[in-house]
Amino acid sequence: MADIKDPENTVIIELKDGPVVIELLADVAPKHAERMKELARSGAYDNVAFHRVIDGFMAQTGDVANGNMENNFNIRMAGTGASDLPDLAAEFSKLPHDRGTLGAARSSNPDSANSQFFINFSDNHFLNGQYTVYGRVISGMEHVDKIARGEPPMNPDRMISVKVAADA
To answer: pLDDT, tens digit, for every residue of 64-90?
Structure first.
């Protein structure tokens, strides 16, 4: 696993193929980083499906309302929900959407990000300045690359567990 420099701002997502270690960029997008830690610590992200996975683009997950594969799961609803917490204002930066970066998913309203996020499979610079970048994969990208594709996938993969490294 990666050398974790700041355990309080590092998240470990357990996938079927192994752990994905994400460095949260709390200095760049503090509200988004804090939200991810809050939802991870509450267990809200555990068993949540990757509901939109586009080859060469990104893998989207984080619908804590409709995406939990252990609790009344309906793949058609996954991707339509959020947490009970208020939406977040955009925290745009100059950081590019490179392979392995974490972006905040949202509706057409820039200030509508909540719990959903995506991991970029490739450099997606057309997203720069339009979606908040708030983390980057520092190890385990090979596991992200194996997530089942589809919109939605026929047999979706899930985040088995999501933990803040300081708590793990």
So the answer is: 999 999 998 989 999 999 999 999 999
d(CA 83, CA 39): 8
Task: Using alpha carbons, select from 30, 31, 58, 33 the residue that is nearest to residue 165.
Answer: 33
Cα 120 to the center of its chain, rounded Å:
10
**pTM for this structure?**
0.97
Distance CA 89, CA 101 (A): 19
Burial 119-137 (b: 16+ CB within 10 A, else e): bbbeebeebbbebbbbbbb
Contact 103, 133 (CB under 8 A): yes
Rounded Cα–Cα distance for residues 25 and 149 (Å): 27
The three-class DSSP label of residue 54 is strand
109 Cβ neighbours under 8 A, 6+ residues apart: none
Is-contact 160 15, C-beta < 8 A?
Answer: yes
CB 153 within 8 A of CB 53: yes
* Structure token pair of residue 94: 């100059």
